[in-house]
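Researcher: Let's do a round of design. I'm pasting the structure tokens now; please hold your answer until I've finished.
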């Protein structure tokens, strides 16, 4: 995806699917550090630590409509293409 806003919408959709009633999206641009950070947190059902370990695998999904889950792996790929990374994924 070319546009970061589409990634953000896509990841926020995960929160809705996880029955979240609160989704916090923070976007921080630090030009002096050449760093753009996006964090998305929610109060949905969460994930086990074990599940989080494999979540960037495109075949890791709880979807029942298809066998691939691309949202997080595509975002991680876009982040890598800019010289960044996908940061710590947390399941608390
Ligand atoms: N915020 C979240 N809360 C709980 N589980 C999540 C959350 N985000 C992702 N997941 C879990 O991680 C899996 C992979 O997410 P990902 O966005 O990569 O793919 P997907 O949502 O399954 O499919 P797609 O994004 O292609 O529609 C999801 O199926 C879901 O089980
Ligand atoms: Mg998704």
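Researcher: That's everything. Go ahead.
Model: Designed sequence:
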């Amino acid at each position: 995806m070319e546009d970061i806003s589409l990634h953000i919408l896509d990841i926020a959709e995960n929160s809705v699917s996880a029955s979240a009633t609160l989704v916090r999206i923070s976007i921080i641009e630090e030009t002096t550090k050449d760093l753009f950070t996006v964090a998305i947190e929610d109060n949905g059902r969460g994930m086990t630590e074990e599940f989080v370990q494999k979540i960037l695998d495109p075949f890791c999904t709880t979807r029942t409509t298809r066998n691939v889950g691309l949202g997080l792996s595509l975002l991680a790929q876009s982040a890598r293409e800019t010289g960044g990374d996908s940061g710590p994924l947390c399941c608390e």
